[in-house]
């Protein structure tokens, strides 16, 4: 399907909105010069426009299948994956010592946005490998690093994450997979995992499973879980894929979307595994991969939103219905106020979600480059917001895309519906958005709201700077920051049950308010006059006010949610 990766828009945002220059100014990322970044954006756009995007429909219509125990991916996926791997895109942020390119994670996130817009089912595989690379770099032994990282960075092998079991979804601590020491430094891993994305395939020569399992002396709950590298083919002495491990794909799920991504039920049957990190320290190690993936899933939502938006825009510019209500219009449905509302809302939301995700990625890069705990706190605070708002935006814009198409949006051949089907899992996997919100109001507020207050202060500084150019918008953003601050002061005084009851609306309100700061920054960058200012005005006047209603919900407490009993709900 046609897609035009928004490389120029990203360049503007890196330069003017999310402070990427700070990353490029660090010693660690000194190579991320403006020329290099420009070249990367151009090449990433070209690859996704020309090679990945044509695989979007075929991945949907001819999804992955399991035949005689072997997974076959959609026609063209093998070649598409090879182009991604050969371009070095899988290992773009990997450690150069192990064959990675050592580029900032921010650029990796941009690449994943493009790939998710172009063909999310295919893009999910490199995304998972990237998370695994980071987890191994941080927690694996030198031997495991030397063996696996060069092959993962090059894309010769791919990575998966195996957490979920039939009875252990959000509650990972309930898992029952077991690992028993073999006596030779390896472990026998046994258990069934479900919903494993890219659990098997034919696009690369080996599949490296990171599997959570419990050792015989592991306590119940998350503290007793360990992490293991369990390869599909056990590397021989030269590091080449050798003997088959004792694991198999039981079945592939039939899903409402993401048909090109093989989602496997995996059975590990005494499979040989190697410990990653400390015994019983598996959750800590897996969290590295999960945190990486959380932001990247938010980015997937933004990619889908951009793809759906472009699709709807193109349709609106062609579809003729009735008389145009404006002079010198296009003569198409683009001239109708409600269609303009839908498209402008989509564009304003994409900008806000993209800015939040990129700001989170910048904070992660600054954390890596400087080790400064302030940046760690900023990244930790923004991660659940970026994941949830990015994926909510994907859902919203995919639906807008269908509505703009009218009846044709409901007909598969236009491709508008695919975005809505593919995006639906994003608020569910990698920790549901509800779980993200609980993380935000609990763990991320353990500092009494300090990190959040600092973020609001930065936002108020943006509003101050914009007072001369767009005083009314600056004023509105400033007021929203104050309202948000009061809500946080209230929140940190509540017990957990009341916090959790309002967690989702609170998270949405935070995204609304933070999004306004970034819109304001973009407006200010063009001197308060031009299309970015018009978009900021749309967002601040029409969408930002939602934060008031959301915060009212956030403060309503838990009691009302239990006022209706299950019997009342049933009747
Ligand atoms: C297409 C697809 C791909 C996936 N890929 C992978 C993968 O590669 N690896 C992997 O390990 N897993 C994967 N998953 C699994 C995914 O991460 C889980 O589905 C997800 O974590 C939710 O778990 P669950 O489905 O068991 O839902 P449940 O945990 O049963 O949740 C059901 C509902 O209850 C809510 N809920 C649950 N617990 C709480 C709580 N404590 N407080 C408040 N609300 C709660 C949830 O928010 C949700 O709304 C994938 C899933 C899908 C559908």
Brief characterization of the structure:
By secondary structure, the protein is α+β, with helices and mostly antiparallel strands. The protein contains 19 helices and eleven strands.
Which features does this protein show?
19 helices; alpha+beta; binds flavin-adenine dinucleotide; two-stranded antiparallel sheet; globular; 571 residues
Which secondary structure elements does this structure contain, and how are they paired or packed?
Layout: H1 7-16, H2 20-24, H3 34-52, H4 56-61, E1 65-67, E2 70-72, H5 77-86, H6 105-139, H7 142-154, E3 157-162, E4 178-181, E5 187-197, E6 206-214, E7 225-231, E8 233-235, E9 241-244, E10 247-252, E11 263-276, H8 282-316, H9 337-370, H10 373-405, H11 416-423, H12 433-441, H13 450-466, H14 471-491, H15 496-501, H16 503-525, H17 531-543, H18 546-554, H19 566-570
Parallel strand pairs: 3-6
Antiparallel strand pairs: 1-2, 4-5, 5-11, 6-7, 7-11, 8-9, 10-11
Helix pairs in contact: 1-3, 3-6, 6-7, 6-8, 6-9, 8-9, 8-10, 8-11, 9-10, 9-16, 9-17, 10-11, 10-12, 10-16, 12-16, 13-14, 13-16, 14-16, 14-18, 16-17, 16-18
The chain binds flavin-adenine dinucleotide.
| Secondary structural class | alpha+beta
- What gap, in angstroms, lies between the N and C termini? 46 Å
Low-pLDDT runs:
none
Helix percentage:
40-55%
Any ligands, ions or cofactors bound here, and which? flavin-adenine dinucleotide
Largest sheet: 7 strands, mixed
Mean pLDDT: 97
Rg over CA atoms, rounded to whole Å, is 24 Å
Order of helices and strands: HHHHEEHHHEEEEEEEEEHHHHHHHHHHHH
Q: Which strand-content bin applies to the residues?
A: 5-15%
Number of strands: 11
């Amino acid at each position: 399907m046609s897609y035009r990766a928004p490389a120029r828009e990203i360049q503007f945002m890196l330069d003017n909105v999310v402070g990427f220059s700070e990353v490029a100014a660090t010693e660690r990322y000194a190579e991320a010069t403006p020329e290099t970044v420009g070249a990367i954006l151009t090449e990433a756009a070209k690859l996704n426009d020309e090679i990945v995007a044509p695989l979007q429909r075929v991945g949907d219509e001819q999804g992955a299948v399991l035949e005689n125990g072997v997974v076959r991916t959609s026609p063209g996926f093998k070649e598409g994956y090879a182009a991604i791997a050969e371009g070095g895109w899988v290992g773009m942020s990997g450690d150069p010592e192990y064959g990675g390119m050592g580029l900032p994670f921010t650029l990796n996130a941009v690449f994943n946005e493009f790939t998710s817009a172009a063909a999310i089912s295919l893009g999910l595989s490199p995304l998972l490998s990237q998370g695994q690379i980071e987890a191994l770099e941080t927690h694996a032994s030198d031997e495991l690093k030397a063996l696996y990282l060069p092959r993962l960075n090059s894309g010769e092998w791919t990575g998966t994450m195996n957490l979920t079991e039939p009875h252990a979804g959000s509650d990972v601590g309930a898992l029952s997979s077991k690992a028993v020491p073999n006596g030779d430094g390896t472990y026998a891993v046994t258990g069934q995992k479900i919903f494993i994305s890219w659990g098997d395939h034919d696009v690369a020569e080996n599949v490296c499973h990171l599997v959570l399992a419990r050792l015989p002396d592991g306590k119940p709950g998350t503290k007793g879980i360990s992490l293991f590298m369990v390869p599909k083919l056990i590397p021989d002495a030269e590091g080449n894929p050798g003997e088959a491990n004792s694991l198999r794909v039981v079945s592939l799920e039939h899903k409402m979307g993401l048909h090109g991504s093989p989602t496997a039920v995996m059975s590990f049957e005494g499979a040989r595994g190697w410990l990653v990190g400390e015994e019983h320290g598996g959750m800590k190690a897996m969290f590295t991969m999960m945190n990486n993936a959380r932001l990247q899933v938010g980015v997937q939502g933004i990619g889908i939103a951009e793809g759906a938006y472009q699709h709807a825009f193109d349709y609106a510019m062609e579809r003729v219905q009735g008389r145009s209500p404006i002079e010198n219009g296009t003569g198409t449905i683009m001239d109708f106020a409600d269609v303009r509302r839908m498209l402008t809302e989509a564009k304003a939301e994409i900008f806000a979600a993209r800015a939040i995700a990129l700001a989170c990625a910048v904070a992660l890069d600054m954390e890596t480059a400087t080790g400064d705990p302030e940046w760690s706190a900023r990244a930790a605070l923004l991660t659940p917001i970026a994941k949830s708002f990015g994926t909510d935006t994907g859902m919203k814009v995919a639906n807008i895309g269908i509505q703009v198409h009218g009846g044709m949006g409901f007909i598969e051949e236009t491709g508008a519906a695919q975005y809505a089907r593919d995006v639906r899992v994003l608020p569910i996997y990698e920790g549901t958005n509800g779980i993200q919100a609980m993380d935000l109001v609990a763990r991320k507020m353990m500092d009494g709201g300090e990190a959040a207050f600092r973020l609001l202060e930065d936002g108020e500084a943006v509003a101050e700077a914009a007072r001369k150019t767009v005083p009314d918008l600056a004023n509105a953003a400033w007021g929203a920051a104050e309202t948000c601050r009061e809500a946080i002061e209230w929140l940190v005084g509540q017990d957990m049950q009341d916090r959790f009851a309002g967690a989702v609306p609170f998270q949405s309100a935070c995204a609304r308010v933070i999004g306004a700061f970034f819109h304001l920054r973009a407006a200010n960058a063009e001197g308060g006059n031009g299309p970015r200012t018009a978009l900021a005005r749309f967002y601040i006047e029409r969408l930002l006010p939602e934060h008031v209603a959301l915060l009212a919900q956030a403060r309503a407490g838990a009691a009302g949610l239990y006022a209706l009993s299950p019997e009342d709900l049933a009747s």
